[in-house]
Amino acid sequence: MAYSRRYYDNLEKWNQFGDVEWVKLHVGRFFQIRERCGQYEEFLKDLLKEACRKLAPLAIIEARTKSIPSFAEKIIRKKTHYIDPRDPLPPDPLVRVTDLCGGRVITQTSSQVESVCNFIKRAFEIDWANSGDVSQRLTPTEFGYRSVHYIVSIDAKKLNAAGIEAVVPKAILNLKAEIQVRTLLEHTWADIGHDMAYKTEVKVPANIRRQFAALAAILEGADREFGRVLRELDVFKSNYGAHHKPEEVEQEIRRLQIVLCHDPRNIDLAVKIAQLALSIGEYDLALKVIDPYSEEPHKAAQRVHGVTLTDLYWDTPKDKRFIKGRDLLEAASKHPEKDAETLCAWAESWAREDETKARDIYQQAVTSDPTEPAALCRYLEFEVAHLTNDTVVRLGSPMIQNAMQRCRIQIEGRVNLPLAWASLTVFHLFAREPFEALMAMAQLIRLCDNPQISLPPVDSCEVGRRPCAAGRALLRMQETFRRIKCIRKEIEGFEWCERLLLLGLAVRVRDAGAIKDLMEFSSRRNQQAKHIQKTDSIVILSGGCAPEVQGEIERFRPHLLRACEGLSFKLFCGGTTSGISGLAGEIAKNSKGKITSWGYLPRYLPRGVREDKDPERFAFCFSSPGCDFTPLDPLQGWTDIITAGVEPCRVKVLSYCGGPISQAECAVGLALGARVGVVEDLALPKSRRFGDAGWEDHNNLIRLPMDAMTLRAFLVIDQLPGKRKEYEMAAKQAHLDYVKFATPKDPAFLPWDDKDHPEDFKLSCYHQVAYAEAILKTVGLGIRKLTNPQKKPFDIEAYLKKKKKSLGELAEMEHGRWNVERLLLGWRYAETKDVVNRRSPYLIPWHALPQNIQKFDFDIIQTLPGKFKAAGLEIYSLAGSLEKP
């Protein structure tokens, strides 16, 4: 394609365009040449047919021109790549998109593929940089997608030389097209396996990908086997689509809206946008997008429109708009192909007005798909409420197990997560698996997109933005628990999950009603002990209390006692004399009132267990219902924390050697927004190490080495340093000191103001100088504005010598800070340092560090006076013994 000078002059201007202008411009340009592409399509199809008459007589020949919506979607997704200044190619989509026109040859045998490929090489001008044999990407032991792709343009002389006598239209010269060549079985794999399993919009689990690879290798019984795997893929269909962060969903919605503008009758695209809007609680947007299609007899459109209206006007079921939504759901349910999810939505719209009708519709849903999780869950809860016993649950046990497996598959694929976790919670309760139920509910709460928010007052009617999909699932679970409450005596863990549900609604959904309900359980209300203030820093100490772990607790004891020296906070624990609870009491007593411990115990203690009644060890002990230790005890602590107005982000959970209750406590803390530190000890059995893989990716979970100063840093450090502006110059100086020792390969070697300097490394420098204030305070030193610029920096070593303190003690604290700061930024221990993947061999206790690495921490402490002086600050003695203001 020839380009004018004006074309190149426009390239820089194009790079400044927003998404809308970018798509509008290039869709218009593509529209102008699309007729030429259509001519290319017809010419290519005829040409390939003629060539294959001899080379592959039974070959299937296909050709197509790229559609406007497909072009629009591709160029908006690839925009950032196209305009990358480091890319030598121009940002023009008409140059970069090489498949504006495409053809495909599907042969019977691989030898025919080779013959057709040889013909294409002879007959066309080939863009080799963008062509290739996809099968060459597979190793000898891999099986999968196999196809040969060529990007070609027409060369009349080559065509004639290859034996094709044809008049080439001038309009198609210089245009490119993509030709794919594959066998029929490869095409079977590509159409079924590759497109369905690898181009699907959801993440498909590794086990399913392995199954497809096996099928690609053997291809025997392909119809039966592919059909079975495709039925597994059906599990991933969802009303809400894959669960992503709200900002990611919003960005995707904006992209798809731009595409929809160029194809306004694309009802499937409108449905997708509306579903994504519903997933983040944007009902008004969903309604705006789907409303123009209200008269269309399209099942998915009717369903999403109906769900939008019924959810939007849920509190006014007599409103004509709610009724319209219910009618739309009924219409969607009347389509020949029955859909359990649609039937569930229709039944839900009747649930509060006519439970009998809702129950009948849920029965239809279960009949259409007996193991669809939401349908079975709803059906069982209505049957339980109707029969007031658990007969249907016991009879439905095999169905429940199958539905639980579907929930797990959905969760593994990260689709339909809110309903999957909600259903799994109820199924675990029905299956008498209370701890698993509590963990599932914690995962559901975690999905809500309001993690660290101010809690509304008890008398507040605040609603805010309508709940996201997970928030709606939590609100709906209140109805579930109300209906199955009649069999709560047969359901172990019912009270635990009910209490956690209230906590989740209060913290994540900001539900004022849940706050009021929690007040009924609060120790503040029942015992008039308003022991928690809104601004308190709270640490929950969690771990083993059984006699058999006392040895492990003794190993942990000196580290934690040393970590807590001089600190001040409220400490929540179990309230007994043994195990981790006994250690909590000792910490409080040693602190001389700076740390106060609060114990949470069952109303009736098991035989042989003693409450710690020493007021110096436990200021108060509060009772939760029950005659044995259960998760209800720590949940009672959380009840008091939330009803006192403390935001969960102010709470830290420190766990060591925990059993099932302690591990549930960690999950609850993560779900509600607390920071959770699990002390790693490889000597512990796996059952005592909180190994739930479902929480490993949580940003607030860090695994701490058993190191006193690392534990101390975890208890006091903030996730981001304060006084960032004040410490700017000191942080820069810290960076310069590091650069003296860094290797050129280390990204931290870059200048401070370099745009490619990783933010992580800047944060590390801020952390270093901000935390230094806490380190210095432990030896009686403070930081203030510089009083005399001519004065020499403070001599830390001389001061420490007078105080009979060691510089190594402060260096050890600095290493503890570094450990926690790295862990909070996502770094993990590994034997070899890997900056790109955030791995380090130095995330270990101080005593295990090599001396040459310890030296870094010594240097940091020794150079503190100079760093602070560069920032206009100075170190001084708080007692005034060496330095006076």
Give descriptors for this structure.
single chain; 885 residues; alpha/beta; six-stranded mixed β-sheet; 17 strands; globular
Approximate shape: globular
Task: Count all strands and give the number.
Answer: 17
Question: What is the end-to-end distance?
Answer: 76 Å
- Would you tell me the overall average pLDDT? 83
Q: Give the fraction of residues assigned to helices.
A: 40-55%
Query: How much of the sequence is in beta strands?
Result: 5-15%
Contiguous uncertain segments of 5+ residues? 135-145, 220-243, 451-464, 881-885
Total helices: the number is 37
Task: Give the radius of gyration.
Answer: 33 Å
Structural class: alpha/beta
The biggest beta sheet is recorded as: 7 strands, parallel
**Spatial strand arrangement across the major sheet:** 10-9-8-7-11-12-13
